[in-house]
Design goal:
Quinone Oxidoreductase, Chain A, domain 1; 3 helices; alpha+beta; oxidoreductase activity, acting on the CH-OH group of donors, NAD or NADP as acceptor; metal-binding; GroES-like_sf; globular
Length: 189
Amino acid sequence: MSHDYKFEGWLGKDKESAKGNMVWGDFPHVKPFEETDVDIQITHCGICGSDVHTLSSGWGPTTYPCCVGHEIVGKAVRVGSKVERGIKVGDRVGVGAQNSSCLKPDCEGCSDKLENYCQHIVTTFGDKYPDGSITYGGYADYHRCPSHFVFKIPDGIASEDAAPMLCGGVTLYSPLVVNGCGPGKKVGM
């Protein structure tokens, strides 16, 4: 497949964008493609309260323009030669709230496979990679992400169901696992 596609999507330009004042536009400062990356042609993206908080600068100052959306599902259209998880062009894949971490063996979070606790985490939108390039989320046509944070979506799960599982689903599932919940136990959500 040709790699002449453009990275563009719905951009928030200021705090007012949280009120629906977003504009379609090109992404400046997209991460340069590396051999560990996957480019995803987005077909589905969930909607999360984090999107509104970020667009409105509700959790601190947002760097605008910002394209939100961190429950991304789509088709892998470009795959580097060093990708993880056996991802191939044409696979249906997804990305959640995190795009990167340091992955260094001396990092407590990364070495314990708890990359979300890494001090060098890069979130899926509104964040910067170490090289200064920007992360842009799933309210867009395409997304670029290091393959370590890209997952194949099983055939038995519809894309519209898989997308919200990449944030909300994991948010509910993780504490159940960490706390040893299982059949016959009572839990509150």
